[in-house]
């Protein structure tokens, strides 16, 4: 190596970085240091150079700053989009429920509201007369 460091002294993480930088495809099942070392030795023996890269410019900095300043909500994520889709699907199928299914669905919604109400109560150890279920509730 040009830095005077023997190749066999490279760590597994360093080998992974070097191989990725030289765009060496990962070989399936070859995850150990010895495997990565053999791949790196081939790269060195072939004299392969890493791909060229463009220097970081002021425009790059400005674009990065704009991305960092952008507010990202849960709705902007894959999870948020999937959740919104599931809600739309639920509403679309709700009018196909039987009377029994609607009753079960209402019961489950009521349970959700009780859980939300309990979560909004003050800290543990305090007793409050809240008629969520028609009696006083002691938080423990």
TrEMBL record:
Domain of life: Eukaryota
Protein name: Uncharacterized protein
């Amino acid at each position: 190596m040009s830095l005077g460091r023997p190749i066999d002294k490279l760590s597994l993480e360093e080998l992974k970085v070097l191989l990725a930088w030289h765009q060496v495809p990962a070989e399936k099942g070859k995850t150990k240091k010895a495997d990565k070392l053999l791949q790196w030795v081939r790269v060195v023996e072939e004299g392969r150079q890493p791909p060229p890269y463009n220097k970081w410019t002021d425009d790059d900095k400005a674009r990065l700053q704009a991305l960092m300043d952008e507010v990202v909500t849960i709705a902007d994520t894959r999870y948020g989009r999937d959740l919104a889709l599931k809600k739309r699907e639920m509403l679309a199928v709700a009018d196909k429920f039987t009377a029994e299914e609607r009753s079960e669905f209402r019961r489950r919604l009521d349970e959700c509201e009780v859980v939300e109400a309990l979560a909004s109560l003050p800290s543990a150890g305090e007793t409050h007369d809240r008629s969520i279920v028609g009696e006083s509730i002691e938080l423990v």
